[in-house]
Amino acid sequence: MSGATKKQTFLHGAALLAMATIIVKVIGAFYKIPLKMIIGDQGFGYFNTAYNIYAVLLLVSTAGLPIAMSRMISEATATGRYNQVRRVYATARGIFLGLGVVSTALMMGFARQLAAFQKQPDAWAAIFCLGPCALLMCIMSTYRGFFQGQGNMRPTSNSQILEAFFKLAVGLALAYGVMKATNSVAYAAGAAILGVTVSCLVSAIYLNRQQRPAYRELPVTDDAPLGYGKTARQLLAIAVPITIGSAGLQLLTVIETNLYMGQLLTANGLSQGAADTTKGIYDMCFTVFNMPCSFMVPITTSVLPAITALLATGDQAGARATEESAARITGLLSLPCAVGLTVLAQPVMGLLGGYTGENLLLAGKILAVLGINVFFYGVIQYTNVVLQSHGYASIPVINTLLCGGVKLAVVYMLVGNPQIGIVGAPIGMLLCYACIGVMNLIAIRRVVPRKTKILQNILRPALPALLMGIGVWGVKYLLQRLPGIGERTVILCGFSVMVGVVIYLICVIFFKTIRREDCQLLPKGDKISKILRL
User: Any idea what DSSP says for residue 333?
Assistant: First the structure.
């Protein structure tokens, strides 16, 4: 298959996942914002504490294996070795099930101990109810890795939408009902998490029904597959470094939570309730930060099998073109999101978090720092995939762990200063992510044989994003001084965002930041590129 064809496959796969991400995030907003209103900042802190622990176990189970599975299936598919595709799937399925069972047992069997470690003992119910999700996500990751390795992103995108919808419907209903019946924030947070478990079950059933016929329709070939043991070793050789890096970073997040909660309780002199509420505000800001970050995932999910297949067939030019296109799209998405969140931090948290007074000022400071980090998150996700696709999966791991250790030290010192408090947590994360991104870029320059213009393409939209930020700040400044408008966060945010989008689109076209191939991500991209004369 030619480089151009593979590149189209990557772009259309990214487009499918991007559209699904938009839908999922809209549904997610309708879920988490009312959820916070039902269970409050304290309950929302319990909810996210359970998620942090779940994320550690989930990353151990699924962070590296879907990537390894996708890469190996992509290589086998590109060379027509469909018996090897079957062998990779069967081997990965066994590994996934074992890891899923262990992770679920740990969360459900040690829920109270895990909650106590996080210095939030009342979060045990949320941790317990989320336990079955670890097994379900392992099952889902097996199916998604199978499809993604063949460049088919539709089942993954559809399952994500299903998952988000059922989480919204079941989670909110259970949280509201339990809160009314028991008036217990801890039990209501657990009920909300139970909705997540139900949504994962529905998604797993859907993926199973999609995978069965697709597996049966794989072409019949006469290639001799590798043995189960050798296939497992190859899978783990790719997956283990990725897993160590991802799980290590998430484990550092859990340790970080322990550190800053301890500092809030001791150095800042807050009560347990006040510390839980402060953590809830930080978690809400982090939820908003994750919204734009999630748009980076479709790029990395689609580009890995695309680059791997091109390298497997020796198409170096096609691999380079795909990497540069993905870098451009990463910059086109991450830079305006970073600037927009930073400039509109306070109004956004007033709108989405419902904060006022001192809580709004605190939330605005936190989100302003997190906003800058959106860009570095995109750089990390992209550079990790480039290194992984070229067989250097251990480099991002080393960079992540080194910078993560520095992050813990910074967070401990800054949060321990009452003048900085919880704002020290996002500052530590910003320093950590910036260092990881820079170290990854240096590594790519050192180990990748051809000189791909990565940094140049990622920073291509920097000037349009800066001009957009100036325009958005000006609009916000004027609206805040209009009688009756300045306090209406819906109008303030909505109008500022609309103006920002217009300015950004005009600038990327005027400065020729966007190219014809980038338009292919959009519906009817050919027509759009003709209108824009690209």
Answer: H
The verdict on residue 504 lying in a domain is no
Q: Name the domain count of the chain.
A: 1
CA distances from 493 to 295, 343, 346, 347, 500 (A): 20, 11, 10, 6, 10
Question: What is the spatial distance between Cα 29 and Cα 11, in angstroms, rounded to a whole number?
Answer: 26
| 203-240 tens-digit pLDDT | 999 999 999 999 999 998 899 898 999 999 988 888 88
Residue 283 lies in a domain: yes
In whole angstroms, give the CA distance from residue 302 to residue 389.
12
pTM: 0.74
Write the CB contacts of 212 (distance below 8 Å, at least 6 apart in sequence). none
The pLDDT tens digits of the residues spanning 239-272 come to 888 777 666 666 787 789 889 999 999 999 999 8
SS3 278: helix
Domain range holding 18? 3-461+513-531
Amino acid, res. 532: L
Whether 174 contacts 166, CB under 8 Å: no
In a domain, residue 500? The reply is no
Give me the sign of the Cα torsion angle 324, 16, 463, 371: negative
